[in-house]
Amino acid sequence: MKICKVIGLMALSLLLCSCAGQQQKATPTQGEYAKVSSIEGVSLETVQKEPKVVSGYENIVLDPLQISPQFAKDYPETASQFQSSLLQYLREKNVYKHVEEAQALKAKKPKGKTLIVDVKVVDMRIVNQNTRFWAGAMAGSSHIDLYLKLTDAASRKVIHEKLIATNNNAFASAWAVGSENSLPTDMGRIIGEYICTVAPVK
């Protein structure tokens, strides 16, 4: 009897996870972001192929990641993981003279042209590790869609906007349980590489 109950619960869990995995991903290219160009399925390699947009900026200022209260509740580590990853990546690239978070620059202003970086979470879904374990590929894919805005610090003119979306292969994740939990960190590095590519110093 106990075995039947366990099997029944597992079957119900798989069914629910399957339904969740089939939910439609939001389309950020509609509505508010309809006029913003986008890149889908990004990686470090794909963003390196993007064309230069602007140059001459020696300093980068990172505003806090904008994330809705619901996403922050569902994925409480996302903001800190993404922000830390982006900050570290830009500093390790050693392209710009100064890379700082906005709150660290209240008492000082770096010399030279400064670019302000704003990133907003438009949509995201990260499959829970337990759900992935039990449901495998049927739990669906994970993804993070971000809106990036680059602004000139002196004039407050918006220099560049982009929607950058990545997704995680559900079948690959089924064989590497927990790998998609690194999506916020991975996306921080991808955004960092994108900034270095489209806004090089020279």
How are the SSEs ordered, and which strands pair?
Layout: H1 2-21, E1 38-39, H2 44-47, E2 59-62, H3 69-74, H4 78-93, E3 98-101, E4 114-125, H5 129-135, E5 142-152, E6 158-168, H6 170-175, H7 183-198
Parallel strand pairs: 1-6, 2-3, 2-4
Antiparallel strand pairs: 4-5, 5-6
Helix pairs in contact: 4-7
Report on the structure:
The structure is a single chain. The protein is an alpha/beta fold. The model is unreliable at 4-27, 130-139 and 169-178 (pLDDT under 50). The longest helix has 20 residues, at 2-21. Helix 4 (78-93) packs parallel to helix 7. It has one domain (2-198): Rossmann fold, CATH 3.40.50. It has a six-stranded mixed beta sheet with strand order 1-6-5-4-2-3. It has helices at 2-21, 44-47, 69-74, 78-93, 129-135, 170-175, 183-198; strands spanning 38-39, 59-62, 98-101, 114-125, 142-152, 158-168.
Strand order, largest beta sheet: 1-6-5-4-2-3
CATH architecture: 3-Layer(aba) Sandwich
Structural class, please? alpha/beta
Instruction: Return the average pLDDT rounded to an integer.
Output: 77
CATH class: Alpha Beta
| Count of the domains | 1
DSSP strand content: 15-25%
Number of helical segments? Answer: 7
Q: Kindly state the percentage of residues in helix.
A: 25-40%
Shape: globular
CATH topology: Rossmann fold
Outline the low-pLDDT stretches.
4-27, 130-139, 169-178
Report the order of strands and helices.
HEHEHHEEHEEHH
Rg measurement, Å: 20 Å
Report the end-to-end length measured between terminal Cα atoms: 71 Å
Largest sheet, described in full?
6 strands, mixed
Tell how many strands the DSSP assignment holds. 6
